[in-house]
Amino acid sequence: MPSMCCHPQAPHKKLRVPDWFASSLMMERALDAIIRRVKKLDRKHDVPYLAGYSNDGQTIYIDRHLPKTFTYNGREIEVARYLILHEEVEKTLIDQLGLHYLHAHQIATRAEEAAIRAEKISWREYDRFMQKYVKGIGDERLTKVPADLDLKPYRDYHDYDLMRGMLKAIDKGQFPNAESDTKMRDEMTRYTKAFKEQDRMTKNLAGATPLVTKVAAAVGRNKKILVAT
């Protein structure tokens, strides 16, 4: 950060720099402030979809197989800071404002993208790099999941295959906290049953006419809205 423009600890004053630079500078400040609030960063576990957080929000988990940096135009970019931003924003919106996971996730993704672009990094290249390391529930590499990983994002996603896979993972002991918690197991079972029929209809209509498919999709969207509310 150029010292002649603004000092991190100094009172905020109008900067005599171009608007685009001031915007990037403010994003950098905000990102640094969020990172400083993180109590613990853990990179020793397997995490579905790269990153997550503990139930109490005190720990941010980043998948142990994700490289710490990726190369973009000759620059080594540290990826943890952007994942931390995403997870912190998402967790706060869910816990403090009561947002549904899907809504919180969209806002967090926009914040992550803004931070990436502020550093003059291609969002497409960044996302492409990340997708190479994403682990789904059925991934054989998913063997060391944090005991206190917050499962709400996976439940709220309303994906039958995902929930079925997580239920199997509980039986295998991959989620120690859920395995020992009957309430969690029962809740996840209810979720899988609730969306089993919807999943079946969606798959059966995969080869249907465009009109029928559109109608079914509309019905599915309405069902999700009703469930979310």
Structure description:
- By secondary structure, the protein is mainly alpha-helical.
- The protein has two domains: about 1-150, no CATH class; about 160-229, no CATH class.
- Helix content is about 55%, strand content about 10%.
- The chain has nine helices and five strands.
- It has helices spanning about 20-35, 80-95, 100-120, 125-130, 150-155, 160-170, 175-180, 180-205, 210-229; strands at about 40, 50-55, 60, 70, 75-80.
- The strands form two sheets. The chain has a three-stranded mixed β-sheet, covered by helices on one side.
- Strand 4 (about 70) and strand 5 (about 75-80) form a beta hairpin.
- Helix 1 crosses helix 2 and helix 2 runs antiparallel to helix 3 (about 100-120).
- The chain is globular and about 60 Å long.
- The chain starts with 18 loop residues before the first helix and ends with a helix.
Which helices and strands, and how do they pair?
Elements: H1 19-37, E1 40-42, E2 51-53, E3 59-62, E4 69-72, E5 75-78, H2 80-97, H3 101-118, H4 123-131, H5 152-156, H6 160-171, H7 176-179, H8 182-204, H9 210-228
Parallel strand pairs: 1-3
Antiparallel strand pairs: 2-3, 4-5
Helix pairs in contact: 1-2, 2-3, 6-8
Fill in the keyword field for this structure.
single chain, 5 strands, 2 domains, mainly alpha, globular, 229 residues, three-stranded mixed sheet, two-stranded antiparallel sheet
Q: Could you provide a short overview of the structure?
A:
The chain is built from 9 helices and 5 strands, in the order αβββββαααααααα.
